[in-house]
Each structure stands twice: as C-alpha cells, then as structure tokens.
Amino acid sequence: MAAVRAFNRLYTSVIGVLDEGPADAEYSLPEARVLFELAHQDPLPVTDLRKRLELDAGYASRLLARLESRGLIVRERSDEDARRQLVRPTAAGRAAFAVLNRRSTDQIGDLLRRFADEDQQRLLTAMRTIGDLVGDRRRDPALVLRPPRPGDLGWVVERHGALYAREYGFGAAFEALVARLAADFLDNSDNPRQAFWIAELDGERVGSIGCGRGPDADTAKLRLLLLEPSARGHGVGKRLVTECVSFAKAHGYRAMELSTVSILDAARSIYRAAGFELVAEADFADWGPKLTDETWRLEF
Question: Residue 280 pairs with which residues in a beta bridge?
C-alpha cells in the first residue's frame, strides 16, 4: 500500500495534476477530458461520454452546461433517436483542444528529454505495462514481426533463461544453449538462407523465432521460439511459426525440423497445427529436471 501511495504522489507531481498556475487554470481536468473525447469522435452520444469518463448523470449535465455556456460545445437531439442526446465541439471548442493538446505534447516532450534514449524506452515500456494491468486491455493489439536490432538477441537469451527457469525449473545449461544459438545467428547474419524475427505487440517485444540450416542443406531448423506470457492468446506463436516455415520454403529447403521437450504443451500444439510430426524422442536431464527431448519434422 505504501508503495502504491508513493507512486501516486510521484506521478501526480510529475504530470502536474495538482498544478494551479496560469497555464493550467483555464480548464479543469474533467473539462479537458471532454474536449479530448470530442476531438476524437464528433458527434458523441452523451451516454457514451459518461461511460468513458465514468461520470454520473448529474455531474455530467453540469459539466456539459459549463462548457456550453462558454461556447465550446453544443448539445442536440439525434436524428435517428430523439431520446438520445449528442454533443459536439464548436469551432471554439476545437481551437481550445488544439491549445491543450499542444501544451500537453510540449510537457511530455520536456519530461522525456530528461532521459537518455534507453531510459525513455524503459519508461514507455513501464507505462504500457501499468496500462495493460490496470486498464482495459485491447482485444486486437497490433502485431509486428521484424528483423532483430542491436540488443534483441541478448533480450532473447535473457527472457528464455528467466521464463523457463521460473515456469519449468530449467537451469544455467539451458540458458547457455540459448546463448550459443543466438551467437550462431549473429555470426552468420549474412547468410541469405537464415532469418530471425522479433514479435512486437503494440511496440513491445513479446516473442522470437529463428530459421537456420538443419542437419543437411535440404533441411531447415526452427529455433528459439519464445512467447512472453502477455502475448499468449493473441496468435503470436502461430504467426511466428507460419513466417518461419514460409521463409524456409521460399529459400529452397525441402523440410524443416525442430527440437522441443514434451512438457511444452502450448508450443507442441502450435507445431502440430502447422503440420509438424513427432519423429524422435529421448530422455535427458541436462537442464535440471528430467525431460523428454523431441524432434519434430515437416516435409514441404
């Protein structure tokens, strides 16, 4: 509780919620929020506005009346349903929002300029995390697959080590194997028959996969499939595997193999759905717990 209160005090101080200087006295926070919502949907049903801002009917009516008296909005009946009231900004209201938006942009820029590029990314990632956990999750976050940038393969190694240690008890030998595989991709980055992808949801890294040469020139190897817990349920794993298989086919491979372990049920389901078949298995305990290594193969 103390940590939450401390964060709230810090956050309100940073964004200036409690400021009462001339720059912030023109509109109250609720008034500014109304102008923001109207700038992004014009007209907007009053009932929808109340839901978005979580306002009761009486307070919403008084708030809109104040804005209307200042010539910033107008209220009117819907042509489709006379029982519904719509609200829209006037030209003065749109101009007022433009000033508020420009001021907000300048304040955010001033905040971010305090930090180096790397720390800016850490801050934005933390903000997205808080939004995901305490806000309304988007049902369709934007999924992007891209080539790795400097630092991405190090992230792949770190996340494999941390996630598999926490969820399955894998030890340092597993992380060392991942590091060797990542280094191999980097050492052969100019090979046109290998590729690596980083998956992002709304700009945040959530997964990876690689395609390289397998045991012979006709067989590709699928490696380092990773899915962050936050990415599960968004089709990221399926998209990564599909991209990897398509690349292998397009670059002259006649088959693809992969190695996994029997306890990774979610990954095995993705492989099976993509057409891979289990062709070999063997017990081992190199990573800590006793496991069954599996080889899966897909013929093109």
Answer: 295
Share of the chain above pLDDT 90, in %: 57
* 35 phi/psi in degrees, rounded to 5: -60, -35
Give me 22's structure tokens: 């001339």
What would the pLDDT profile of 31-69 be if each residue is shown by its tens digit? Answer: 988 998 988 887 889 988 888 888 888 898 999 999 999
Residue bearing tokens 């891209």: 146
Half-sphere exposure of 196 (CA within 13 A, CB side): 23
Measured between its terminal Cα atoms, the distance across the chain in Å is 57
In sequence order, the β-bridge partners of residue 85 are 77
Tens digits of per-residue pLDDT, 77-106? 887 777 788 999 999 999 999 988 888 888
**Are the C-beta atoms of residues 276 and 258 closer than 8 Å to each other?**
yes
pTM exceeding 0.90: no
Among 210, 285, 293, 222, which residue's Cα sits nearest to residue 255?
222
Q: Report whether 87 contacts 73 (CB < 8 A).
A: yes
CA–CA dist 289, 219 (Å, integer): 30
